[in-house]
Amino acid sequence: MNTFQAAALAAMTLTSAAALRSAWRSRRWADKRRLIAAVSAMRCDSVGNIGISIICSGVDCMAQIENLASPEYENFEVVLCLDSDTSLRRMRNIIDRYALFRVALPSRSELPVVGVRAIYRSRRGAIRRMTLIDKRFTSHEDALDAAVNVASFDYVMAVGRNEYLYPDSIDMLAAQIGEHEACSVDMLECTTSGGRLFLRDAIVSLGGYASLRYMRPRRIKRVINRIPDRYRIAGRSAAIRRAIAAITAVVASLVLLVLSGFEPLAAALTATVLLTVVCRAYARKCRELTV
Amino acid sequence: MNTAVETYAIVTILLALSIGALLVDRSMRAFRSRRWHCVHEPVALRIVMRTLTSPRLRNIAVRIPRMPRRRLCDTLLSLSLTTYNIDRRAMSALTDAYGSERIIGRLSPFTTGYRRAERLLMLASMPTGRRIPVHRLRHWSAASRYIHFYTLMADMARTPVLAEYLIETCDIRLSPSEISQITAMLHRGSITLDYRRLLRSSDRNLRMTGIAIVRHFSIEEACDMLHDIAASDPDAEICREALITLCAAGCTIDPSLMAEHIGGMDAAIRRSICRHAILNGYPPAAFAPLFGDHGDDRLAALAESNKYTIA
User: Fold this and answer.
1) Whether ipTM exceeds 0.90
2) Is B298 within 8 Å of A105 when comparing Cβ atoms?
3) B-chain residues near A175 (CB < 8 A)
C-alpha cells in the first residue's frame, strides 16, 4: 500500500467525519432550541430564582441598548459602563430615556476598580432593569469589573459593541442554567457566538475580567452551549465571501480532478471538499433563527 | 488501495448529496414557515378563536382549506401553552376535529432525541378527547432526561389526579427548569396540587414543587411552613429555595434560628441568599449571623448602591 495514499485517505476520512459530526450536532442543537423556545413561551415568570445581569462596556448606541433591555424575563437587568468625558451627551440621553436616578457610591467592592464617578439606576415600576455607571475609561475589562460590582443577580454575561440579543436568548440561557442545581455551574459558554455566562461568584474568585484578559478560565465547572445567543449586524459581504470561498474550493477540486485524469485520490479529495462545504452550509442553516 | 479510495469517494458523494437534500428541505421549510406565519396563521387563529368563543360554532368542525395540519398543530400548541383558563373541552374538540391527535399520537420509533421530547410536550400540553394508546407513553427507559421528564408531563396531563404520585415516584431529581414547567401546567389548569401536602412531604421533588407553587402564586399563608423548612431541612437546595421564597414574599425571617443550619452551606449559596434578600429590601446586617467569615460584608455594597443619594 502506498503510504502517501493511505495517509491522504485517513486525513480525508477524518475531515469528512468532523464535517458530518458538526452538521449532526448543529441539527440536534436546533431541535433543542425549538424545544426550549416552546417551553419558554409557556412560562410567565423566571426559571427558579435564576437572575441574569448583562454587562456592557462602551455601548452607547441607543438601538443596541433598547435591544438589550427588551427581554421580558423577570430577573434580568442591563448594566452599562460609560465614560462621561467622551460620551456625556449619550449618557444624558440614556438617563433621560430610562428615567435613571443617581444612587450612592458603594464604599466597598468585590473587585478592585478605580475611577467610578457615579452610578445611576432605573426606578421601580418603570424600567427596573437598567443601571448606568460613569467610570473613567482605563480598559474594557476594568469597566466590566465595575459592572460586576453593582450587578444584582447571580449570573453575569458581557455583551460587546454591535452585539444584539435574540428575542428569547435570556430565556434560553436561564433554561439551560436551570437544568443544573443552583450555583453549581460556573460558566455557560456558547461556542457558536463566543458568549460566556459566568456565575458571579466564579468571576469574582477568578479575579474579574481583568484577570481573564490573558488566561483561559480553569478549574471551574463549564457547560457548553451551542445555541447562539447574540448576533452582529454585518453586511452581506460576509455571506458573499463565504459563498465565494466555497465555490472556489469546489471548483479548484474539480479542476484538480480533471487535470489528474480522474484519479481515484483526486476524486476522493473532490468528494471530501464537496461534503465539507455542504455540511458547513447545513450547520449554518441550522444555527439560523428558524421559527 | 484504489478500491478503498473509490469506495470512499462514492460513499462521500452520496453523503454530500443527502446532506444537500436536507439543506434544501430546511431552506424550504423556513420559507414555508414564513409563509404560514404571514398568510395562514392569522386566518387559523381567527377561526380557532371564533370557535372557542361562540357557543353555536362549538360543535361544528370548520374546515380550514389547504392548511398543513402540522403547522396548525403548532399553532394550537402555542395557543395551549400561552393561554390560561382556556376551555379545555372546546380545545380538545378543535384538536380532534382537525386531526391533530393523529399527529400528536404518532410517535414513531425513528423520532428520537429532542424531537421525541417535543412530541411528548405536545401530548402533555394539548387537550385531546381521544385517548392516546398507553404503549406510546412508555419512554421511561430512555436515556435522555428530556424524554424522561416530558413522559412524566404527558402522564400527568393524561391522569391529573395522579400528579402528586407521579412526581413523588419520579426517578429523576427535578431541576428548577422542570419544576417551573410543572408550575406552569398548574397555572394553566391542567393539574391540581395542594401546596400544603407538598410542603409536608418528605420527598425532595414534592417539597421543591410546593415551594415553587408558593413563590409563583405568592401564598403568604405558607410563610410559617417555609420558615420551618428553611430551619430544619437537611437538603441545602431546599433551604435556599425556601429562604429566597420567604424574601420574595417579604415575610419576617429570624436568621438566628437558622444560623447553624445555613452556616454549613457553600459560600456561593449563602451569598446568593443574601443577594436575594438585599434586592427584596432586607438589611444586610440582619443576615450577619448567617455568615461565619467577615468577607461577606462586601455584599453591603450592593445595598448601598441601591439607596438614593441626597445631593
Assistant:
1) no
2) no
3) 177
